[in-house]
Design goal:
- Helices cover 39% and strands 16% of the residues.
- By secondary structure, it is of the alpha/beta class.
- It has one domain (7-211): 3-Layer(aba) Sandwich (Rossmann fold), CATH 3.40.50.1950.
- Strands 3-2-1-4-5-6 form a six-stranded parallel sheet, sandwiched between helices.
- β1 (7-13), α1 (19-30) and β2 form a beta-alpha-beta unit.
- The protein is globular, with a radius of gyration of 18 Å.
- It binds flavin mononucleotide.
Length: 213
């Protein structure tokens, strides 16, 4: 099967812990030949998390992609979250998939309720109404009943709920290993599997059992 080329992806970053997840996703999308363009929208609280966790201030919004990647970006364009009139606020804009990474409980609630009151919430609303891929990397712990009900509501409307939970069976040695493998799983959800994605092939015992005739 031919892989889709020239994909257009929206990446939203909200005020939940895990700014490094967004930074990794943007780096992988920038380097992915199947991706033509990335729209980046960061909420006010998301900008605060970039500053708190990565020491990166938004300053001139146009330069944010460069500051996050540590080099100039050919594909990523940062859009103001207040601009609910941006192209991605319309279903006529050909966005293939959207990630909310990380996704705060506040933005999750807005999306589940269809508030569409800022560009992140409206762009997500558009993905759901157009039946396109929307991945919510929800991050908080523990979850309240309200959080869980909002996740269920968003999932029933078509979103994929992908809590920012690392996994350990690839024997991570560094935080970057954990982050990379989680983000690879997120990108696989939108049809962009990465070469470095770890794939479980079974325990030695189950592999042996599989080879027995
Ligand atoms: C350092 C820091 C870490 C936070 N971590 C989380 C978190 O992991 N999950 C969450 O739902 N909210 C978290 N919050 C609270 C949200 O940022 C806050 O609810 C905010 O209003 C969310 O706005 P947004 O959805 O527009 O980004 C955190 C706030 C700060 C300052």
């Amino acid at each position: 099967m031919l892989e889709r080329q020239n994909q257009i992806i929206t990446v939203a970053v909200t005020g939940a812990s895990g700014a490094i997840l967004a930074q990794k996703a943007l780096a992988l999308l920038e380097g992915d030949a199947r991706v033509a363009r990335v729209h980046l929208v960061v909420t006010e609280a998301g900008q605060r998390l970039f500053a708190e966790e990565l020491g990166i201030s938004s300053g001139d919004l146009k330069k944010l992609p460069e500051r996050l990647l540590g080099r100039s970006s050919k594909k990523i364009e940062a859009l103001p979250n207040q601009d609910v009139g941006a192209a991605i606020a319309s279903g006529s804009c050909a966005v293939d998939a959207m990630l909310v990474i990380p996704c705060s409980m506040g933005t999750l609630a807005s999306i589940a309720a269809g508030l569409a009151d800022d560009l992140v919430a409206r762009a997500a609303d558009v993905m759901l109404k157009e039946s396109r891929k929307l991945i919510l990397c929800a991050r908080d712990t523990p979850f309240s009943r309200i959080h869980l009900e909002n996740m269920l509501r968003a999932q029933q409307a078509g979103a994929v709920i992908m809590p920012a939970i690392p996994f350990f069976y690839h024997h991570p040695k560094t935080i970057d290993d954990l982050v990379t493998q989680y983000v690879c799983r997120v990108l696989a959800q939108i049809g962009l599997p990465q070469e470095e994605m770890y794939r479980w092939e079974g325990t030695p015992a189950s592999k042996q059992a599989g080879t027995k005739s």
